Amino acid sequence: MHLTNSSTSVTVRHRGLLRDTTVALGCAALFGLLSALVTGHWHPLREFDQHWISELHIYAREHRIWTAAVQTLSDIGGPVTMRALLGVAAVWLLLIGARVLAGWVAAQALAGWGAQWALKLAVDRQRPVFNDPVSHAGGPAFPSGHAMASAITCAVLVGLVWYRVHRRGRIAACAVAAGTVLVIGWTRVALGVHWPSDVLAGWLAAGVVLGLVTAAIELWRPGALARDVRRVNWRTRPRVQRVIVPYVRAPHAEDAERDDPVDRPDEPVR
Hints:
Order of helices and strands: EEHHHHHHHHHH
Shape: globular
Largest sheet: 2 strands, antiparallel
Structural class: mainly alpha
Helix content: over 70%
Strand content: under 5%
Strand order of the largest sheet: 1-2
Radius of gyration: 30 Å
C-alpha cells in the first residue's frame, strides 16, 4: 500500500519503521541519561528515591496483610510469568502459520531477558538495604526486571489484539496493559527491593527492546509482519454458516383458483 504525495512515495512500512526506530532511540537516550544520573549519584535523584522507598517501607512494615497482598501481586507479575505468556502466544501463532509474527514475539522475550541482565551487570547498582526488610530479591537493582518484562509483554499482547478489536476494545486493552505495568512496577518499590528510578529504567529499556526488535524484523523481512497480521485476522475471524432454505415455488394464480373449493361453482347433479 503506497501513499503518494506529489513527487514523494511513502509506504506504510517505512512510516512504521521510522516510528519504531524513533521509539527505540528516544528511550535509549532517556535510559542513558538516567543511567548517568544514577552512576553519578545525582543528589536530587538520590533524595527522590530515598524518600519514596523509606515511606513505603514504613507502611509495609506496619501492615503485614497489605504487604502479603503486594508480594502476591509481584510474584504473579514476575518475569517468569510474563515470558511464559509470550511463549504461549508465540506457539499459538506458529500453529496457525504466522511464523514471522511468532518469531517477533519470541525475539521480544529473549531480547528482553538478555538486555535486562546485560544492563544490570553494566550498572551494578545496589538494591535498597533495610535492617528489617519485608521482602528479598537478588542481583543488581538497575533496571527492574519486573518492570521491564511486564512492559514488553503487555505491549506485545496489545499489539497482537490491536487489529482484532475496534476503538473501544483498543482503549480497554491499553488501559488494562498500562494498569498492569504500573501496578507491577509499584509493587517492587513498595516491597523495598527496587528504587523508583530502577522501575523507570525498566520501562525505558523495554521501549528500546520493543522498538529495536520490531525494526530489525521489518528490515529483515519487509512487510512480513503485516502479512502475518492479516493471516491471523483471517484465521481467527468468526465463521458464518449459511443456512440453505429449500426453494418452494409459489402457487400460480390459476392453480389456486382450481384448488380452492370456495371459488369453484357447484357442478350440476346428473
